From TrEMBL:
<protein>
    <submittedName>
        <fullName>DNA-3-methyladenine glycosylase I</fullName>
    </submittedName>
</protein>
<dbReference type="InterPro" id="IPR052891">
    <property type="entry name" value="DNA-3mA_glycosylase"/>
</dbReference>
<dbReference type="InterPro" id="IPR011257">
    <property type="entry name" value="DNA_glycosylase"/>
</dbReference>
<dbReference type="InterPro" id="IPR005019">
    <property type="entry name" value="Adenine_glyco"/>
</dbReference>
<dbReference type="Pfam" id="PF03352">
    <property type="entry name" value="Adenine_glyco"/>
</dbReference>
Amino acid sequence: MSEVNWWESSPEMTIYYETEWGFPEHNDQKLFEILSLESMQAGLSWNIVFKKRANFRQAFYNFEIKKVAAMTSTDLDRLMGNPGLIRHRQKLAAIINNAQMIQKFQQAGQSFDHFVWQSVNFQVINHHPQTMAEVPTVIFEAKQLAKQLKKAGFKFVGPTTCYSFMQAAGLVCDRIKFP
């Protein structure tokens, strides 16, 4: 019996896979959302995070960078009381922190899009996998991106999280072709 792929676990996951996951993204706000949700996934399944995505969008102003960057410790306390979120204080604080870091890029005239896409020389890395078993768990470029993000002040951006981000945002194509 063959194993079910993660995107086949529900109709919603299949739609996400067919319409969002792995397609090249260049919008700073959308990239911020993807990074935030992938950071929340650390230690959890994507299914848990995905089911709470609408709640995260509502709690974080649809990931509008300027609004999230302006959030305070009072907002963080409010988020911790929201049962619709994954209530991990450091991860929630990291989302606010990371919005502030993206805002610094933007204020310096650099987009977050440019910052992350330079990690793959502005070209999608395509692994052409035929099965999920062929998909690596991390790649050199994800390790490098994690180092660069941490150096820039980002939080909860280890190599595995960065690789998941790169896959979801389409910097890396690990999409399995449907028969």
